[in-house]
């Protein structure tokens, strides 16, 4: 799972009000560089919840020291993407698309329910008593 | 004819493969629109000869593999280019060759120099047309007025005769070719890779399998005089576009073959064939930078094709086993890796409760392309207990508890799919899905609907005498209003959820129908015995294999 997907996932077990953003407990991470696709990032930014993305990056950073990944700005005006410079786009790309959570958990901020992530696949299925 | 060729127009002849006939127009229109080419303002479709209803031997255009599109000559070179090579120097110019080459079902695109019902009409039309003069000028060979690499005088050429499967011998072909000798092309004739390949097409009536309705020769290869004397439906002459890069058979060579299912490492019983997947990604207008979603991803065959079109892909499924694949080297990701594509995002979630897995503030996807479960090869499941009273899961079991699932009615599968599409597609984004059906399915009233989605196209593909499948494309035209959710879902089936019953459990229905046929019992018994024999043979082989390895181990010890 990349952070892009994390940005759209939420927990909604019975009784949860918000369930967003999910906290990340990382066991294994992976970094795989890919070419930057600027139009894609610009197309994506207005759809992104930037605060949730930023907090996810903060949670993963301590586990990624071996890759010396860039820091991202704490806030970005996603409604006006044209003023964002190339360097920032590259940094956003790295964290959105090149970092993978391989093993770990996504944790509901309200109920503490843990959704396991295995082989990069988050298992968001709700149990029968959570529906 | 409604409109004749004038000096101001530039005509293209589109030649389709004689396959998936019902998809021809839908795919072509989707690609034309995706490339921002506006039918009406930029170009018009002209009727092909003998297609008008009042003509005596009329065959409607929709049953024939040819279309003629007319552009204004002024727009060639300014708004559109027809050169072989992709020219990025002027991004405002749309290259018709590379744009249309994305159509899976287009065989070739020809710069049409002349056409008519019969050979003589076609020759006359070429003589009075502008094709040759314009070609001499070379203006249309390059998009932004760059100097032509090869002058008209030095361009090598050949004339190909295409008679749609009817056989004409060398002399007869030469006779047809000689009618165009007046062009006096100055360059050298070259059979292999010429600069210009000219094409003469003699169109005749074809049956649905692509064979001639009135074959020129019998099976014993004897000429059938009355069929030979039949005039053609139409004759076309022109120059093949993209000749040096794509050749005549645009879809030939390795373009499709390299994506063939057989070559994929990971396959399942529900994998979609690659040609239909490629058509679906065109119907859904998936392009580089799109975000494409498949809520019933299965083994990922459709998702892979959307990624081939340059999309960033997200797939979900309720079944964790298909997402994980068979092994480390046989799974959805390994298929993507095989084609050098960026890995897809896979999430195990339940499309019946999409809105509880994903935040739904903003439309996210440019395209949803999917083959929903209809209980044909894999029955649909959704989250929840089958019991009336749900038992609580103990906290200490929570982390490794296997969530219960229950059957998911096809009427609900479709209602949820359309509603998720309405909720998550961007405005103008497209949903393309496959729906199987038997002859009792009436697409005018039985297809599911949604207030926010417009029906774009329905393409029918016969599979067996009674069974077929439709590929349906819808477009989001209205903002989704969460407060109307129940209303949207209630309006899915105009004729009530019974429509969905027509597409559900087709396998069972086919078996029921087969049981009524005479001789079913005997055949079923024979098949059963054969299966049993194969199974035992396999078992035996396995036993022997283990026995021999045991021996080997014994020897080592």
Quickly count the helices of chain A.
4
Major beta sheet summary of chain A: 4 strands, antiparallel
Classification by helices and strands of chain A: alpha+beta
CATH class of the largest domain in chain B: Alpha Beta
Average pLDDT reading of chain B: 86
* Radius of gyration computed on alpha carbons of chain B: 28 Å
Judged by helices, strands and strand pairing, the structural class of chain B is: alpha/beta
N- to C-terminal distance of chain A: 24 Å
Largest interface: A-B, 36 and 40 residues
Structure description:
The complex is a heterodimer of chains A (about 130) and B (about 550). With about 130 residues, chain A is an alpha+beta fold. Chain A contains 4 helices and 4 strands; from the N terminus they run H-E-H-H-H-E-E-E. Chain A has a 4-stranded antiparallel beta sheet with strand order 1-2-3-4. Chain A is globular. The two termini of chain A are about 25 Å apart. Chain B folds into 2 domains: about 10-245, VC0802-like, CATH 3.30.2130.30; about 265-385 and about 395-510, 3-Layer(aba) Sandwich (Rossmann fold). In chain B, the strands form 4 sheets. Chain B has a 7-stranded mixed beta sheet with strand order 2-3-1-6-9-8-7. With about 550 residues, chain B is an alpha/beta fold. In chain B, helix 8 (about 275-285) packs across helix 9 (about 300-310). Chain B has 18 helices and 18 strands. The interface of A and B includes residues 46, 121 and 122 of A. Chain A: Belongs to the TRM112 family. Chain A: InterPro entries: Trm112, Trm112-like. Chain A: This is Multifunctional methyltransferase subunit TRM112-like protein.
């Amino acid at each position: 799972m990349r952070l892009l997907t994390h940005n759209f996932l939420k927990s909604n077990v019975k009784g949860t009000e918000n369930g967003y953003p999910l906290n990340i407990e990382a066991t294994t991470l992976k970094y795989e560089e890919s070419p930057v696709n600027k139009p894609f990032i610009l197309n994506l930014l207005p759809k992104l919840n930037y605060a949730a993305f930023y907090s996810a990056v903060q949670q993963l950073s301590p586990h990624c020291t071996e890759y010396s990944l860039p820091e991202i700005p704490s806030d970005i005006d996603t409604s006006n993407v044209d003023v964002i410079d190339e360097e920032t786009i590259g940094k956003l790309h790295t964290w959105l698309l090149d970092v993978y959570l391989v093993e770990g958990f996504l944790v509901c901020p309200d109920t503490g329910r843990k959704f396991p992530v295995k082989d990069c696949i988050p298992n968001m299925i709700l149990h029968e008593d959570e529906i | 004819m409604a409109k004749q060729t004038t000096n101001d127009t530039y005509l293209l002849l589109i030649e389709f493969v004689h396959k998936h006939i019902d998809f021809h127009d839908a795919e072509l229109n989707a690609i034309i629109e995706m490339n921002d080419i506006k039918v009406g303002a930029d170009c018009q479709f002209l009727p092909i000869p003998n297609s008008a209803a009042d003509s005596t031997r009329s065959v409607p255009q929709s049953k024939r593999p040819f279309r003629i599109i007319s552009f204004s000559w002024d727009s060639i070179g300014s708004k559109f280019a027809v050169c072989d090579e992709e020219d990025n120097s002027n991004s405002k110019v749309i290259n018709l060759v590379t744009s249309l080459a994305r159509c899976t079902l287009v065989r070739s695109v020809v710069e049409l120099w002349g056409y008519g019902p019969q050979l003589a009409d076609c020759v006359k039309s070429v003589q009075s047309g502008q094709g040759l003069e314009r070609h001499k000028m070379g203006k249309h060979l390059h998009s932004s007025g760059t100097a032509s690499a090869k002058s008209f005088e030095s361009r090598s050429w050949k004339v190909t005769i295409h008679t749609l499967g009817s056989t004409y011998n060398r002399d007869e072909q030469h006779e047809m070719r000689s009618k165009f000798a007046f062009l006096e092309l100055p360059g050298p004739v070259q059979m292999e890779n010429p600069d210009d390949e000219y094409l003469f097409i003699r169109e005749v009536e074809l049956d649905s399998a692509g064979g001639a309705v009135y074959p020129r020769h019998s099976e014993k290869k004897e000429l059938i005089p009355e069929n030979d004397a039949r005039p053609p439906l139409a004759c076309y002459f022109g120059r093949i576009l993209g000749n040096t890069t794509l050749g005549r058979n645009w879809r030939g060579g390795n373009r499709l073959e390299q994506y063939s299912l057989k070559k994929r490492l990971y396959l399942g019983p529900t994998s979609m064939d690659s040609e239909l997947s490629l058509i679906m990604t065109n119907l859904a207008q998936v392009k580089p930078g799109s975000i494409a979603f498949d809520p019933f991803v299965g083994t990922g065959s459709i998702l892979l094709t959307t990624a081939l079109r340059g999309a960033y892909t997200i797939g979900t499924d309720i079944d964790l086993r298909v997402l994980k694949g068979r092994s480390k080297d046989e799974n959805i990701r390994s298929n993507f890796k095989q084609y050098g594509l960026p890995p897809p995002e896979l999430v195990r979630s339940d499309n019946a409760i999409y809105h509880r897995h994903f935040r739904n503030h903003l439309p996210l996807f440019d395209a949803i392309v999917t083959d929903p479960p209809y209980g044909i090869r894999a029955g649909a499941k959704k989250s929840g207990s089958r019991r009336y009273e749900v038992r609580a899961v103990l906290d200490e079991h929570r982390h490794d508890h296997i969530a219960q699932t229950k059957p998911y009615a096809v009427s609900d599968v479709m209602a949820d799919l359309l509603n998720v599409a309405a909720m998550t597609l961007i405005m103008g984004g497209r949903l393309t899905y496959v729906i199987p059906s038997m002859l009792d399915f009436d697409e005018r009233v039985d297809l599911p609907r949604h207030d926010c989605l417009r029906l774009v196209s329905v393409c029918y593909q016969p599979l067996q005498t009674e069974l077929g499948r439709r590929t349906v494309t819808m477009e989001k035209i209205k903002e989704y209003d969460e407060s109307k959710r129940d209303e949207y879902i209630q309006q899915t089936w105009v004729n009530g959820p019974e429509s969905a019953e027509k597409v559900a459990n087709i396998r069972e229905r086919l078996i029921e129908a087969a049981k009524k046929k005479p001789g079913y019992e005997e055949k079923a018994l024979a098949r059963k015995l054969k299966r049993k024999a194969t199974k035992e043979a396999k078992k035996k082989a396995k036993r022997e294999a283990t026995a021999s390895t045991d021996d080997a181990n014994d020897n080592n010890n």
